[in-house]
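stage 2 :: seqdesign
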């Protein structure tokens, strides 16, 4: 089982400068490889350049520019070229699927924030020590950088990445570890209904509040973004304003992650089976299609875009996708079952008689069955139906 660990780096001033130069030079390599692919397709009879061809040129590139390219790890440069290759693979996949293509773009050195090392010991070295001791990680061309390791790394380290967030630096490790012992069985199962008013509601009637971290920080973000808009481009003041906006976004993201981890851990500890809705979040947060006005050329009819934009912000602020990903990972490590079920009509189906009707949910919070007069909270009814569908799917699955 592969698990990721993220630790804060504390480089010296000189090391931070070298790390910045490493990102700059990898961005230059990425952009050069992208330009080569563009030129080959445009000018040489639409010829495609593959990763293997560009990787074979690395030796000559490093010899030609030893100061900027020759000083860094060969394998990390291969990883950067693979990153570009994956971007093109995703581009062609989207074209084939009829989606918006999104052609790979050139990367500004300030926006190129990650360098990957595919193998521990090849251009980098994670020095394993007890987690309460002073740890360091070594990068070729940088040296031994101090690490704040807040938990032990279990298993064999496979890959290492260095990441920049604002003025902070992080090391991201992936470790291959044996399957841990499952948690003791509780004999309990639960269904959860994801929402906005409450982050989730369980089939037992428990409501987990939605902290709405993004909404709480909205005024500060608005003021910071307005201050950014007033700054002159490429000025020192603008650079500080950009860092301020990024810091506020980073705080919201961390708060959201912290809440998701704690909520998922409670569910995993208390239940053997967790059923949830298989939400298509990207489709749910899609912007409405414009409606041309037939009586006014160039005009459009109202399509509810403003209201939908507010709903989309609330969906993004709830962080359903992040929570479900964390829940699935924690359940896998604890030996729990997580089952995704079809969310259609889960809040319109009566759990007592099975009657399905739109009228069963007269308001957002209320469920009132038109057939048997059963009344309950709509989210609790939805969670109960999710649990029932999840248990049925679990029993129907082949052993």
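stage 2 :: out
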């Amino acid at each position: 089982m592969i698990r990721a660990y993220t630790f804060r780096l504390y480089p010296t001033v000189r090391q931070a400068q070298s790390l910045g130069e490493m990102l700059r030079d990898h961005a230059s390599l990425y952009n050069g490889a992208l330009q080569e692919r563009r030129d080959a397709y445009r000018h040489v009879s639409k010829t495609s350049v593959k990763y293997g061809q560009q990787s074979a040129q690395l030796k000559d590139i490093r010899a030609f520019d030893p100061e900027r390219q020759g000083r860094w790890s060969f394998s990390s440069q291969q990883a950067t070229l693979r990153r570009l290759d994956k971007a093109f693979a995703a581009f062609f996949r989207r074209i084939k699927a009829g989606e918006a293509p999104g052609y790979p773009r050139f990367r500004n050195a300030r926006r190129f924030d990650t360098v990957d090392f595919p193998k521990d010991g090849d251009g980098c070295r994670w020095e394993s020590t007890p987690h309460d001791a002073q740890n360091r990680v070594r990068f070729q061309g940088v040296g031994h950088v101090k690490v704040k390791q807040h938990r032990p790394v279990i298993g064999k380290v496979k890959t290492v990445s260095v990441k920049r967030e604002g003025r902070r630096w992080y090391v991201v490790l992936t470790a291959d570890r044996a399957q841990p012992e499952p948690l003791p069985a509780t004999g309990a199962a639960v269904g959860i209904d994801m929402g906005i008013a409450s982050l989730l509601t369980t089939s037992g009637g428990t409501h987990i509040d939605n902290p709405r971290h993004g909404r709480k920080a909205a005024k500060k973000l608005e003021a910071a973004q307005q201050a950014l808009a007033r700054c002159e481009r490429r000025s020192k003041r603008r650079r500080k304003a950009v860092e301020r906006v990024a810091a506020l976004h980073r705080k919201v993201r961390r708060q959201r992650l912290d809440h998701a981890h704690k909520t998922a851990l409670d569910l995993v500890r208390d239940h053997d089976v967790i059923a949830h809705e298989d939400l298509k979040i990207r489709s749910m947060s899609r912007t409405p299609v414009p409606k041309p006005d037939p009586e006014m050329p160039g005009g459009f009819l109202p399509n509810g875009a403003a209201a939908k934009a507010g709903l989309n912000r609330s969906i993004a602020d709830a962080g359903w996708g992040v929570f479900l990903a964390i829940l699935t990972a924690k359940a896998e490590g604890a030996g729990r079952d997580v089952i995704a079920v079809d969310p259609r009509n889960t809040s319109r189906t009566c759990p007592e008689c099975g009657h399905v009707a739109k009228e069963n949910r007269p308001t957002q919070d209320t469920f009132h069955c038109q057939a048997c007069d059963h009344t309950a909270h709509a989210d609790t009814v939805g969670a109960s139906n999710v649990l029932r569908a999840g248990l049925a799917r679990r029993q129907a699955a082949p052993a």
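stage 3 :: structure notes
- The chain is about 45% helix and 20% strand.
- The chain has two domains: 2-176, 189-396.
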